[in-house]
Structures are given as structure tokens and as C-alpha cells.
Amino acid sequence: MIIPTKEKGADISRRDLLKSGGAMATVTLASGVTLMSFGGKAAADGLKPGARWGLLIDAGKCPEDCSACVSACSKEHGWEDNGLDTDPQWIRKVTLREKETGRENSLPVMCQHCDEPPCVDVCPTGASFKREDGIVLVNRHTCIGCRYCMMACPFKARSFVHEPVTDQRTDSPRGNGTVEGCNMCVHKIDRGDGTTACVEACQATGNNAMMFGDLNDPESDIAIAVSTYASVELRADLGLNLGVRYQNI
Amino acid sequence: MKTLLVSVLMMAALMGAPVLAEGLLPNIPAALGEPHPEGNEFWRVNHPAILSHDRDLTVLDGIRDIDGSIKTCVACHAVEGPDAAPLTVASPEHACRTCHDYTAVKIDCFQCHNSRPEAGDWPAVLPSLGGTPESLHAYLERISQ
Predict the structure, then answer these.
(1) Distance (Å) from the alpha carbon of B77 to chain A's nearest alpha carbon
(2) Among residues A57, A152, A153, B7, which is most buried (max CB within 10 A)?
(3) What is the CA radius of gyration of chain B?
(4) Per the CB < 8 Å rule, is A141 touching B117?
(5) Are A170 and B121 inside 8 Å of each other by CB?
(6) Is residue A241 very low, low, confident or very high in pLDDT (cuts 50, 70, 90)?
(7) What's the CA gap between A52 and A60, in Å, rounded?
(8) Closest by Cα among B33, B69, B35, B37 to B51
(9) Percent above pLDDT 90 for chain B
């Protein structure tokens, strides 16, 4: 009996294959369709394996009258909220009020980038997905605009685009008939900026209420902060293990 | 049959031969950058497959340095409009539309993607529509190299 052995290279992942671009000069997609010249340039590019990007928001430092993060996001991604019910909101300021004491808190709420995202569970086409580095995204190439994810999201973080869009930001394509939401400035992360538009804006105001970083990197500021000081998830009862955490709420 | 032929010839004479010739083939504007090393024929045939393959690399794996980047396509194939800004896909003279209109293939890309470089990101020199015989000749010379 011949025991089948693993051929050398048989367990190369799709990404490893692309990384080894030098060896792969030509990739055959289908008969007559070939892709050429990867040239190994993909190796230095792409998402950081093993990362879990997250945000830490200190509600104690977030003034109620400040919405710098919201305007920065709107500008970075080219969406506009003119107050209509159907206008998109990738990030919004929310005021929480404790019934018993009357204590009020203002804080920004956006996609919480769940580790176990309900929007991904319900998506019929797989368009709502979680990247390897923990960012939850909509692949608009496969989104059919059914809006199941909007109903599944406990944070109302997703919006539907009701009108045709023109002159989009080239790094943040968005279009009519698809669902969208905070993408944690994925183009900036891929570029290596190491921050998001909202965090940059918050730091520029001097409030420093927001922090961005890799929760899985024990050396990172955000990982040190969450391991040192108390922070909570919104709707922790759902057990979704959120990438966005809050302090002082 | 004879009368039909005569009327066709008369129509051609009335319209003028250049008009007829222009109407027959798409008037593809020259691009800004270096010609594709794989050749125009390769890209004419394979650009849909390359674009849809590489978009998955970007969206799913965050790889942004790709061959089929629509951002690079529209930047390099930008065409100057009447207001000195690059044309959008709303214009039939947009680089993508010249060919897509001719072949009657609908483009879905620009429902979400911007069909021109972002404002502030416009190339310093925009190619005008390759209408003159000189510019067309220069373009053919470049791509044949």
C-alpha cells in the first residue's frame, strides 16, 4: 500500500504563494487567461498577520460639544450626514444617561469590530467579513444590499447608501445599493500610518480621548492601557469580544 | 441595387470621408504613463480578469500594491475635459467609456469607485483627446515600441 505523502509545497497558502512572487512569474487563472509579473512586490504589502486592531475611548475626556472625530471620518471617507434618516453615519456621538443618578456621558460610537460579528453571521453572500487582523468590513463587490447586517448589528453601526454617489474618495469607494460602516481606516492601516482619521482628529483637539493600536501586541500603548486601567465593552452581555473599548462610562 | 449603392455613395460624399472614418472606430485617448510592458493587446483582453483578481487581494488581504489598481488606471488614463479637470465617466470621452460604449459593455466599477483622480491629485499635464492625426501618430509610435 502506498501511503500518500504531502508533496512539497502542497500546504502553501494563497498568501504564501503570492508572497513568493519571484518564483511565480505567471499564474494561470483560466484557460487563456494568465496573470503576469507579481515580481514578489506583494511581500512587503498587506495586512499584519496576528494583529488585532482596536480603539480605546476615554468617555471622561470626551466633551459633549466636540464632534471632531465625526467630521474627520466624514471627510476621510466622503460620507455626509445632513440629518436625514437615510443619511449614512459611520460614527456618531451618543449621550448616555444613568437613570438613577442622572450622570451623563458623551462618547463616539462606531463599528465595534467584534471578534464574533453578528453581521458576518447573517450575511447571505459573505460580503460582510472579518479580516485576519480583526477589522470587520463590507466587500461591496459582493454586497447585494439586503441590509440583514444592519438589523443584526447591536450598535447600529452600518448604513445603507440610498443615493448614487459620485466623486468618492479614491481610498474609500462607496456606492448606491450597498451597506457601509466604519472600516477603521483600513487604507491608512495598510499604508502603515498607524492611526485612524478619528484618532488623529481627537489628538489634534488636545482631548486625547481616543487611542488606536494593536491589542495583540503587548508592547503597544493600547495593550498596556487596557491591561493597566479598567475598560469595558458596550453590551458586554452579548459576549462578542469587541475591538473597541471604553473607559469611564 | 444600383440605386442603393449610389445613395450610399452620395451619403458618404455629403458627410465627408473623415466623419465616416471617425465614426467607425473608437477614439481612444493616449494615457499619461509608460505603455504597459505586457502590451496593449494583453490588457485589452485581460483587464477585467486582472481587476477582479487583484481587487480581492486588496479587499481581503490588504495588499494594495497591485497590477490592477483602479486608482492607478483612472490616474494614468485621465483625459482633460473642457474645464481643465479630468473627465468623469459621465462623459462619453472618458478613457474607459470610449471603448466600452463601442463594444456595448456596461461598466459597474464607477458605481462605487471614483472615475477620475481625486481633486488635488490631478496630474500636472493631462492628455487632451487624441483627435489630431499628429497626436494619434505619436501615440501609435509610443505603443509600438
Answers:
(1) 15
(2) A57
(3) 18
(4) no
(5) yes
(6) very high
(7) 25
(8) B69
(9) 46
Which structural domain, as residue segments, surrounds residue B94? 2-144
pLDDT, one tens digit per residue, over B85-94 is 899 999 999 9
Interface of A with B in 107-166 (CB under 8 A): 129, 131-133, 137, 139-141, 164-166
Q: Is B62 exposed, middle or buried (0-12, 13-18, 19+ CB in 10 A)?
A: buried
- Measured in angstroms, the CA of B55 and the nearest CA of chain A are apart by 9
Q: What is the pLDDT of residue B31?
A: 87
Q: Residues A192-219: what's their mean pLDDT?
A: 96
How many domains is chain B built from?
Answer: 1
Contact B46 A34 (CB under 8 A): yes
Asked if A35 contacts A27 with a C-beta cutoff of 8 angstroms, the reply is: yes
> CATH for A53-247?
3.30.70.20
The grid coordinates listed for A35 are 496573470
Residue of B53, B60, B66, B77 to mutate for A, most A C-beta atoms under 10 A: B60
Q: How far is residue A45's CA from residue A204's CA, in Å, rounded to a whole number?
A: 29
DSSP code for A157: -
What pLDDT is stored for residue B28 in this prediction?
Answer: 85
When pLDDT is cut at 50, 70 and 90, the band that residue A30 belongs to is: low
Average of pLDDT values for A211-218?
97
- Delimiting residues of CATH 3.30.70.20 domain(s) in chain A: 53-247
The partner residue sitting opposite B63, judged by closest CB among A33, A36, A42, is A42
Size of interface A-B (CB pairs under 8 A): 89
